[in-house]
Design brief:
The protein has about 450 residues and is α/β, with parallel strands linked by helices. It is built from 15 helices and 17 strands.
Length: about 450
């Protein structure tokens, strides 16, 4: 998109139109002392010096490329084909906005349609929207959907759902008549943690609008959700399944095939590196009977007057677009560029590529676990896992992680004490297809040295 500056004549014409003599007159409501405050800044530098200085500042950061990284907990380092970034830099994508005029936005609408198709294929669900802000806001919208659908006040969330997702959902419903209950879905022993869904099953009753589980859960464990599915069906509650890492669906049975009513998750790792946790791309997929309650937008395919394929915005549940009394969500937009990146990535990888990445991630995680055991560590996870597992740190997770970083140059994982005090001696370790044998060796060696 080219930039066209205003000429002096343009500015003068605009000032006359609004009835002022100068641009300064537009700021008369701001006290004079605040209009042009003196800034305590160093002298200006030539561009070459600025670039050098910024490089020096950036070099102070330790990144996952500089250290052996086993960070995960919802944001993962996965292989993203080079063509993703190349395509995202194209101006027709980079400058595109909401496609209210379909005749001008067929490319954007088709991208949305393809994304929805891919999400349905990935999750085993019937309908997907064109994405939401991120996985956490997608969960919050799912909770609101279930509350509005069932008119029941209670929401039951497993404590093994990502804590940030739980916090966002709690914020969304804080001003509503919603009884949000976080229920234990794991049992802690001296050095281990194992799934235990009984308390979650017992918490579901006729007042429950939905129950929320994650698979694999936040601790990395893959748990059979059937007891929860059965209890929800018996009491007329809906089941929301959170997918923390979409790559896991390259190996696992899709949530839709397991009985989920709504599937939400985060697709950031398919579009680019963790990037401080955002921006994200939240997927939101449902059964067909819920289509008119789906938040956000749904793009559809039809034919134009010439009989050619055409793409349009088919459904929107925001009151800006439909009658207020029929609106079910006020969510406005999404981070569509990240969504597009995930779409391009999935298309480039294909079914086989996604499965290979999932298999390589699983292999890397189990190699890391074996190496840690050889270095004297105790694996705390007592359930199957794909690419993430918990390790027992007797002296405390926070202290052990700091020593591993300082003495071993390893970002060994996440302190689970930030989730619950009962987990403050557990470290969440993640590995992906980008984890090398050298990374695993560095982790095991550092662990052995910091016993």
């Amino acid at each position: 998109m080219s930039y066209a500056p205003n000429t002096d004549a343009d500015r003068a014409a605009m000032l006359r139109a609004v009835g002022v003599e100068s641009i300064d007159d537009l700021f008369v409501d701001i006290p004079v002392r605040h209009r042009d405050p003196e800034l305590d800044l160093p002298p200006a530098l030539p561009e070459t010096d600025v670039i050098r200085h910024l490089g020096e500042l950036g070099a102070r950061n330790a990144t996952s490329s500089d250290l052996a990284s086993f960070l995960g907990a919802g944001f993962y380092r996965h292989f993203v084909p080079a063509l993703v970034d190349q395509q995202l830099l194209r101006s027709e994508w980079y400058t595109a906005y909401t496609p209210y005029q379909p005749e001008m936005a067929q490319g954007t609408l088709q991208a949305m349609y393809e994304f929805q198709s891919l999400v349905c294929d990935l999750t085993g669900m019937d309908v997907s929207n064109a994405s939401l802000y991120d996985g956490a806001s997608a969960l919050a919208e799912a909770v609101l959907l279930c509350r509005g659908l069932t008119r029941r006040p209670r929401v039951v969330i497993a404590d093994t759902v990502h804590p940030a997702y739980r916090d966002v959902a709690a914020t969304y419903v804080s001003a509503l008549d919603v009884d949000l209950r976080v229920v234990s879905a794991a049992r802690r022993d001296a050095t281990s943690v194992r799934p235990d869904l009984q308390a979650l099953v017992d918490a579901i009753d006729e007042q429950t609008s939905c129950v929320v589980i994650q698979r694999p859960d936040f601790l990395g464990m893959v748990v059979d959700p059937d007891p929860v599915m059965q209890a929800a069906r018996e009491h007329g509650a809906r089941v929301v399944v959170v997918v923390g890492d979409p790559v896991s669906l390259g190996l696992l049975v899709p949530p839709g095939d397991l009985g989920a009513d709504i599937v939400v998750g985060e697709l950031r790792s398919l579009a680019g590196p963790p990037a401080y946790g955002g921006p994200g791309a939240g997927m939101f997929a449902v059964r067909s009977q819920l289509i008119r309650r789906v938040p956000g937008r749904i793009a559809g395919r039809t034919t134009d007057l010439d009989g050619k394929n055409a793409f349009v915005l088919t459904l929107q549940t925001r009151e800006q677009h439909i009658r207020r009394e029929r609106a079910t969500s006020n969510i406005t937009t999404n981070q569509a560029l990240v969504t597009l990146g995930a779409t391009i990535s999935l298309c480039a990888l294909g079914r086989r590529g996604l499965r290979e990445i999932a298999e390589q991630s699983l292999t890397a995680a189990h190699h890391a676990a074996e190496a840690l055991v050889g270095a004297g560590a105790v694996i705390a996870s007592e359930a199957p896992y794909v690419n993430e597992f918990a390790v027992h740190a007797p002296a405390g997770a926070a202290a052990r992680l700091e020593r591993l970083r300082k003495e071993g140059n390893v970002l060994a994982g996440i302190d689970l004490g930030c989730v619950s005090p009962t987990f403050d001696d557990l470290i969440l370790v993640a590995a992906t297809e980008l984890t090398t044998a050298d990374d695993v060796e560095a982790l095991a060696s550092a662990w052995a040295r910091t016993q």
